[in-house]
Design a protein that fits this description.
Number of strands: 7
CATH class: Alpha Beta
Number of domains: 1
Strand order of the largest sheet: 3-2-1-4-5-7-6
Structural class: alpha/beta
CATH topology: Rossmann fold
Radius of gyration: 19 Å
Largest sheet: 7 strands, mixed
Length: about 300
């Protein structure tokens, strides 16, 4: 399957750039977006940002695949029991809150988010234990939760230490023996080296993220990249772009360009199923307790607060 998809992506990669505004994964192609076009990419905390996420997160291949990988990582833990108190730190529009009830067999799920508009979607899903708050200042007492989820939040925190503060707060509200499962983005397949950050957005590598977790007092149990094919596809496109680039004017001055995921792939159900099946394969591979993927667009970290 991976070989077949790789061949198809290679053929698609040869399409001239002017024809591509959306790649076969349903993402806008970053290097084809100028500053004017970027206005159409919803920026985080905007109404349009949460509208798009809510419209896609239940069925889109990326969202569904991330849930499969998260479930596989948590199944590898024998220490997780039932009846857990769970916090979704940065719950967005609520899909992870719904998912985790089944994934760990609990009815006690609390969500926090800085956006009141995002929380309104959670209420529409029937979630009641909600608070408008930041992961950098969690409004809960020490040692209250058994499991804290934090999905695609760290990269959006202030880059002068916001992620460090978030790790410390997650550590504080977990009971000894509790776990956190974090998901954030990776720098693989994106242009630019160096720090890969703006004032309030950054990309990580695996060592960076696990070092921050350990620095907050966690024991890292599992850490892996994910979404390998998209990373390979983006890396190939980046190499081709660099070959065709005529100068520095092709580079952006900022790292964060808004939400690139689009609904286009949802209109091609066969492609949505195919791309999801790839992430399901990754999830099956990662269900092995000592396995990790060497690169990818996404990073998962499962960490323990020691007793």
């Amino acid at each position: 399957m991976l070989a077949t998809m790789g061949a198809k992506l290679f053929r698609l990669s040869l399409v001239p750039f002017p024809l591509l505004k959306e790649d076969p994964f349903g993402h806008e192609v970053p290097w084809m977006i100028n500053r004017a076009d970027a206005v159409g990419r919803p920026m985080i905390y905007s109404k349009e940002y949460y509208d798009r996420i809510r419209a896609l997160e239940d069925q889109h291949w990326w969202h569904a695949g991330m849930r499969e990988i998260a479930a596989a990582l948590m199944r590898s833990l024998s220490e997780l029991g039932g009846g857990l108190r769970v916090l979704d730190a940065g719950c967005g529009t609520g899909s992870a809150m719904v998912w985790v009830r089944t994934a760990v067999g609990t009815s006690s799920v609390t969500g926090i988010d800085v956006s009141a508009y995002a929380l309104s979607f959670c209420r529409d899903r029937g979630e009641l234990s909600l608070s408008q708050a930041s992961v950098m200042e969690l409004p809960f007492r020490d040692g209250w939760f058994d499991l804290v989820l934090c999905n695609d939040v760290l990269q959006h925190l202030p880059t002068d230490g916001g992620d460090v503060t978030a790790f410390q707060e997650i550590h504080r509200v977990l009971r000894p023996g509790g776990f956190t499962l974090l998901r954030t983005n990776s720098r693989f397949g994106f242009s630019g080296g160096g720090a890969q950050m703006d004032a309030d957005f950054q990309r990580y590598d695996l060592d960076q993220l696990t070092d921050k977790a350990r620095g907050a007092g966690f024991v890292v149990k599992r850490a892996s990249y994910a979404n390998v094919l998209l990373s390979l596809h983006s890396s190939l496109k980046l190499r081709l772009r660099r070959l065709r680039s005529s100068g520095p004017g092709h580079h952006h001055s900022t790292v964060y360009e808004g939400l690139g995921i689009r609904e286009g792939v949802m209109k091609r159900r066969w492609l949505n199923r195919l791309l999801l099946s790839n992430l399901v394969c990754e999830a099956r591979y990662l269900s092995g307790s000592s396995r990790c993927l060497p690169f990818g667009h996404t990073i998962f970290c499962l960490a323990l607060k020691p007793r």
